[in-house]
């Protein structure tokens, strides 16, 4: 989220390659002409941009001034549902991990899944582990129903990668 009084500053610093409709070829042409950020465009003459870049020039001028008349679309298809916990004190054993999954993560996952998809459609199940050294590992397998005992097998498999490291996050 960008506070209203910071919008123009953020837009000004935005690299032109981040603007929808500016691909590699267009970006190369813009950069060759000395345009790298929205501030470069904002400080340019509108007519000159149209002469040099056509509709792209007009579009960039508007966007660099914070004008974008496209409709905001907030709906999107959910592709995954997950639950995770970062621990204030690292854990290390299978039993500690299993207790967190069984008591906290799995019930919350069941609840989220029921709210998101009443038919409880599942394609894959997985576990994510972040170790104390901040290395992240995940494991997932195709399994078409939410199944607590199956997570026990996944946990055993993912902890084979532990190599004595403590666990900072489990999901």
UniProtKB/TrEMBL annotation:
It comes from Vibrio maritimus. GO terms for biological process: DNA repair; DNA replication; error-prone translesion synthesis; SOS response. Pfam families: IMS_C, IMS_HHH_1. Residues 18-68 form the DNA polymerase IV/DNA polymerase iota-like thumb domain. Its EC number is 2.7.7.7. Belongs to the DNA polymerase type-Y family. Keywords: DNA replication, DNA-directed DNA polymerase, Mutator protein, Nucleotidyltransferase, Transferase. The keyword Transferase applies. It is an enzyme of class 2 (transferase). Residues 78-171 form the DNA polymerase Y-family little finger domain. GO terms for cellular component: cytosol. InterPro entries: DNA/RNA_pol_sf (IPR043502), DNA_pol_Y-fam_lit_finger_sf (IPR036775), DNA_pol_Y-fam_little_finger (IPR017961), DNA_polymerase-Y (IPR050116), IMS_HHH_1 (IPR053848). This is DNA polymerase IV. GO terms for molecular function: damaged DNA binding; DNA-directed DNA polymerase activity.
